[in-house]
Amino acid sequence: MDVAFDLVNYAYASRLRLLKEMQERDARRKLSKKEAQHHMAIVAAQNASRELEIAQQQRAGKEAQLYQELTSLNTLSSAALDHHHLHIERLAAEITIRGQVLDDARIAQEQAETAASETKALWVKRSEARHKWQQIQDDLRRAVDILSEAAGEIEADDEILLRYGRGSLDQRSRNEFR
Fold this sequence. Notes:
The chain has 178 residues and is mainly alpha-helical. The longest helix is centred in the C-terminal third of the chain and has 86 residues, at 78-163. Helix 1 (2-72) packs antiparallel against helix 2. Helices cover 93% and strands 0% of the residues. Keywords: Plasmid.
């Protein structure tokens, strides 16, 4: 009866281990996806940073150009000055937009990093659970093997004792206690 009970436990442990393996694979897939999203967020933040830098350089170049025109000419028409001023304002607005895009990209990067970290923690937890159930299954397999081997040895001993007419070990032990 004990062997059958252990076999049921072994089968149950085996099913649980398989379930834990499926959960671990699922967590690994999710982790891979989150790490890819994190990588994309890093690239997006880098691109946004470059775009902001380019916009700042363009504005600085336009301001330098205006300053050179102002210093080279004694007089600059009001229309030309307004044109340069509008162009600089447009570049300033673009810098503001690029700065906001960079801020958003950094926030997205932090969120992706947090999500990847949480998913990694879940994967580690699931991996540990799978290892635990693998160990339990291995321990149960060894216990079943030991019990089967012991049962086989007892049967062999009983057969030998019966063959030589001495009775079984069970009968002998019962007689000793009477």
